[in-house]
């Protein structure tokens, strides 16, 4: 069945019922029937994915051009620094670890940008050092820098990336020196001392539970079990803590190992990737740790019961939050939450309940609307949903302080999973429209900038910052979304960390 070309605004999105119907046979016969294909033991010996480089599609060529444009601006005005400020042609340092360069390494390799990759590798070899007398965030440094180095090592087998990863891992492991074994938020890379964050006494739940893929992978490569032992302890400790139908508060105290009372429950900021890594840890370890699978399934049931809601007038699915000690439902959803359709679909591929795919399809549609109903085709950071008739005929609205777009990848990430698993080209078309929004309203002379107002095509309020995850995640997922041969990065062989860095799946 051919899909209509969606060009005019009034035809940008297919009705949800039609979306679910399209290529249903492909979903049933290909997604569910092949879920065991290639999922056997003996995967510990990983080889780089075949077929790279390969002939690019026209849309991929556009993504590569965007990557080159972003890289050129970064190289010219922010080389070796964390972030480019493309409008003022300066740089921003947060962790002082060359975040953009490290985040971009595997993207450059995947896109076969040999010259750019070579100069980045040279910087890593000669300029990347971790003997910095400053605190860094354990989570951000792990998913971006450690994850980026490990991924690039797996893709290239070049020792320099592993050597740097080991040096960094040996410093970051100090974060686990707490009263409970649950890590502190910050680590000083020079003194190797850990501390609570400056903004409060507790660690974020998503942060202490979204470092497991990376530390486990480091143990598997080096044969040193200490990294994996530390993160296994955290996961097992969290497993034993009381939860609300599988859902967790967003703050935990590193000294006591207990939840902060009256914490919010959300699938967005500070909660999101806890749920993502339950599934991905289970996959990474060859589906051998049953408690991770069980906790994931319980959490999805809790999401359906406590967080799922429908809009007026269009009956769109969204997942809200529980505030005030997890008692009061709030009808808001972060763009960060839009990782969830992809995670649910990935779970179905690995045998999770089939109705999770329906949730994935419906939430994917809602997330896409939060982008394509804006005049810029870009999503706000936070969307509020109408659950009662308002007389406006609008399903959702955006508050002034939430109208910014930070070049985030989450919806595009989920579009890739949905397309990868179904072959439904509608997901590609939606992603292409999002990319057109990025090109039109975020591209500037020396790179790309986040913007402060997605609701106006005239007054977008550029914020003069190009986040590292734009190169590490957003452009990578767009490139993969438009890849003709989706087997190149098979989800039966690779699991992507929370920063889109692919790591191998092991047999146990």
From TrEMBL:
GO CC annotation terms, alphabetical: endoplasmic reticulum membrane
Keyword set, alphabetical order: Calcium, Disulfide bond, Endoplasmic reticulum, Glycosidase, Hydrolase, Membrane, Metal-binding, Signal-anchor, Transmembrane, Transmembrane helix
Lineage: superkingdom: Eukaryota
Pathway participation: Protein modification; protein glycosylation
Compartment list: Endoplasmic reticulum membrane
Enzyme class label: hydrolase
Disulfide bonds, paired cysteine numbers: 338-367
Membrane topology: Single-pass type II membrane protein
Gene3D superfamilies: 1.50.10.10
Catalytic activity, as annotated: N(4)-(alpha-D-Man-(1->2)-alpha-D-Man-(1->2)-alpha-D-Man-(1->3)-[alpha-D-Man-(1->2)-alpha-D-Man-(1->3)-[alpha-D-Man-(1->2)-alpha-D-Man-(1->6)]-alpha-D-Man-(1->6)]-beta-D-Man-(1->4)-beta-D-GlcNAc-(1->4)-beta-D-GlcNAc)-L-asparaginyl-[protein] (N-glucan mannose isomer 9A1,2,3B1,2,3) + 4 H2O = N(4)-(alpha-D-Man-(1->3)-[alpha-D-Man-(1->3)-[alpha-D-Man-(1->6)]-alpha-D-Man-(1->6)]-beta-D-Man-(1->4)-beta-D-GlcNAc-(1->4)-beta-D-GlcNAc)-L-asparaginyl-[protein] (N-glucan mannose isomer 5A1,2) + 4 beta-D-mannose; N(4)-(alpha-D-Man-(1->2)-alpha-D-Man-(1->2)-alpha-D-Man-(1->3)-[alpha-D-Man-(1->3)-[alpha-D-Man-(1->2)-alpha-D-Man-(1->6)]-alpha-D-Man-(1->6)]-beta-D-Man-(1->4)-beta-D-GlcNAc-(1->4)-beta-D-GlcNAc)-L-asparaginyl-[protein] (N-glucan mannose isomer 8A1,2,3B1,3) + 3 H2O = N(4)-(alpha-D-Man-(1->3)-[alpha-D-Man-(1->3)-[alpha-D-Man-(1->6)]-alpha-D-Man-(1->6)]-beta-D-Man-(1->4)-beta-D-GlcNAc-(1->4)-beta-D-GlcNAc)-L-asparaginyl-[protein] (N-glucan mannose isomer 5A1,2) + 3 beta-D-mannose
EC number: 3.2.1.-
Residues of the active site: 140, 272, 381, 410
Cofactor: Ca(2+)
Binding site for Ca(2+): 498
GO biological process: carbohydrate metabolic process; proteasomal protein catabolic process; response to endoplasmic reticulum stress
A GO molecular function held by the record: mannosyl-oligosaccharide 1,2-alpha-mannosidase activity
Role description: Involved in glycoprotein quality control targeting of misfolded glycoproteins for degradation. It primarily trims a single alpha-1,2-linked mannose residue from Man(9)GlcNAc(2) to produce Man(8)GlcNAc(2), but at high enzyme concentrations, as found in the ER quality control compartment (ERQC), it further trims the carbohydrates to Man(5-6)GlcNAc(2).
PANTHER family: ENDOPLASMIC RETICULUM MANNOSYL-OLIGOSACCHARIDE 1,2-ALPHA-MANNOSIDASE, MANNOSYL-OLIGOSACCHARIDE ALPHA-1,2-MANNOSIDASE-RELATED
Similarity field: Belongs to the glycosyl hydrolase 47 family.
Protein name per its UniProtKB record: alpha-1,2-Mannosidase
């Amino acid at each position: 069945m051919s899909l209509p070309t969606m060009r005019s605004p009034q035809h940008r999105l297919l009705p949800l019922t039609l979306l679910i119907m399209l290529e249903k046979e492909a979903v049933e016969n290909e997604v569910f029937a092949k879920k065991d294909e290639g999922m056997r033991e003996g995967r510990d010996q990983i080889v780089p994915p075949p077929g790279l480089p390969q002939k690019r599609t026209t849309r991929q060529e556009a993504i590569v051009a965007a990557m080159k444009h972003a890289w050129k601006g970064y190289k010219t005005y922010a080389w070796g620094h964390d972030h480019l400020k493309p409008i003022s042609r300066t740089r921003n340092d947060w962790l002082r670890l060359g975040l953009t360069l490290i985040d971009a390494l595997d993207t450059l390799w995947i896109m076969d940008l040999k010259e750019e990759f070579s100069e980045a590798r040279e910087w890593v070899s000669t300029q990347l050092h971790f003997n910095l007398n400053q605190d860094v965030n354990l989570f951000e440094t792990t998913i971006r820098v450690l994850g980026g180095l490990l991924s690039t090592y797996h893709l290239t087998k070049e020792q320099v990336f592993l050597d740097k990863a080991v040096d960094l891992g040996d410093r970051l492991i100090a974060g686990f020196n707490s009263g409970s074994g649950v890590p502190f938020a910050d680590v000083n890379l020079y003194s190797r001392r850990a501390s609570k964050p400056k903004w409060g006494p507790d660690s974020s739940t998503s942060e202490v539970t979204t470092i497991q893929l990376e530390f486990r992978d480091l143990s598997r490569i080096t044969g040193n079990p200490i990294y994996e032992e530390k993160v296994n302890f955290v996961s097992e400790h969290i497993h034993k803590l009381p939860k609300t139908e599988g859902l967790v508060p967003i703050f935990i105290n590193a000294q006591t190992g207990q939840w902060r009372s009256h914490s919010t429950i959300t699938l967005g900021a500070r909660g999101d990737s806890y749920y993502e890594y339950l599934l991905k840890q289970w996959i990474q370890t060859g589906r051998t740790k049953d408690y991770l699978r069980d906790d994931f399934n319980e959490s999805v049931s809790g999401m359906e019961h406590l967080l799922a809601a429908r809009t007026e007038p269009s009956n769109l699915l969204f997942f809200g939050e529980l505030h005030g000690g997890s008692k009061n439902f709030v009808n808001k959803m972060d763009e960060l939450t839009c990782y969830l359709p992809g995670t649910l679909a990935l779970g179905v591929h690995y045998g999770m309940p089939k109705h999770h795919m329906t949730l994935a399809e419906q939430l994917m549609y809602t997330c896409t609307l939060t982008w394509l109903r804006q005049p810029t085709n870009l999503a706000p950071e936070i969307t509020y949903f109408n659950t009662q008739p308002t007389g406006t005929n609008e399903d959702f609205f955006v508050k002034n302080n939430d109208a910014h777009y930070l070049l985030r990848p989450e919806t595009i990430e989920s579009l890739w999973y949905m397309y990868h698993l179904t072959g439904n080209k509608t997901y590609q078309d939606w992603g292409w429209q999002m990319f057109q929004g990025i090109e039109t309203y975020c591209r500037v002379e020396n790179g790309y900038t986040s913007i402060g107002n997605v609701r106006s095509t005239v007054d977008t309020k550029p914020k003069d910052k190009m986040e590292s995850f734009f190169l590490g995640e957003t452009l990578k997922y767009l490139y993969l979304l438009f890849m003709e041969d989706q087997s190149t990065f098979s989800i039966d062989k690779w699991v992507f960390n929370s920063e889109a860095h692919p790591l191998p799946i092991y047999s146990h």
